[in-house]
């Protein structure tokens, strides 16, 4: 979880919202002692083990050797 003081939060709000959209929780710090006062969390958090499909589309390639063979049982 990342933490931001109020001043930094207001100046970087669009970037911080992008982090929240990606599932990150953001803590808001306030006062001279920068104590946590609030937390911004995703509205629809990702479930444990849930992965976004197609994240590597176009970034990887799978090829098989010319002598690769597979039996019906495999």
TrEMBL record:
InterPro entries: YefM-like_sf. It comes from the Bacteria. Belongs to the phD/YefM antitoxin family. This is Prevent-host-death protein. It comes from Leptospira yanagawae. The lineage of its organism: Bacteria, Pseudomonadati, Spirochaetota, Spirochaetia, Leptospirales.
